[in-house]
Amino acid sequence: MVRTHLPIGRRPLFGFLPSIAAEVEATAGRPRAAVEILRSVLRTGHQDDFPQYRTIARATSIAARFQIDPDSVSSVELDAVLADADRVFGELQWLCTYRTAAPLCHVGQADRAARRLVAVGRQAHSFGATTRVAMADSLRILLDLADDADELAAQTRALASSFDGPLWPLVVDHLVAHVADDKRELASVADRYESLGYLRQATMIHS
Questions:
Q1: Alpha-helical runs (H) found in the chain
Q2: What are the pLDDT digits (tens) for 35-57?
Q3: Whole domain around residue 187: which residue ranges?
Q4: Whole-structure pTM value
Q5: Residue 36 counted as domain residue
């Protein structure tokens, strides 16, 4: 459905549908396809009425390129996209934070990544967006940005117990195995991610 509507013919959707399509490709383990989808969005000088969609497109492209080659992402472009991300709120700010956290750590700005994840976690908590709280907390654990990873993992487990589906119990197992540096359990978690179709998470463990 997204592919059908990818041509940028309607201004309100500029950058938004391509970002969804790119995220699907990246999650399925095809980051190069994600980068290609967003290439025309980022190349054009068109400024529409919804510049926040360009911001999420840039963050999505950075995350996909980081999957391909972490060294291809620079501090300068992270600074630029995060400056724009600070002007939006809610879902778009959360997504920009999640997609730039690992690249920030890679360029030596782990403290900044940690601060942003804590901030969006608090914002999500105030909105009652518990899945977003869990996402922020779990990413802090997986990027080794948590002061007390065991406690944070326990809090995430408590949150995840209220979520339906097979993903979040697996995420909690991933967090616990990561904190314990249990290689055998991490390999098991990667296999279970793959069996459920979550290839990005499996790739993150293998890399």
A1: 16-27, 31-43, 51-68, 75-85, 90-106, 110-127, 130-142, 149-160, 167-180, 183-196, 199-206
A2: 998 887 787 655 555 678 888 99
A3: 160-207
A4: 0.89
A5: no
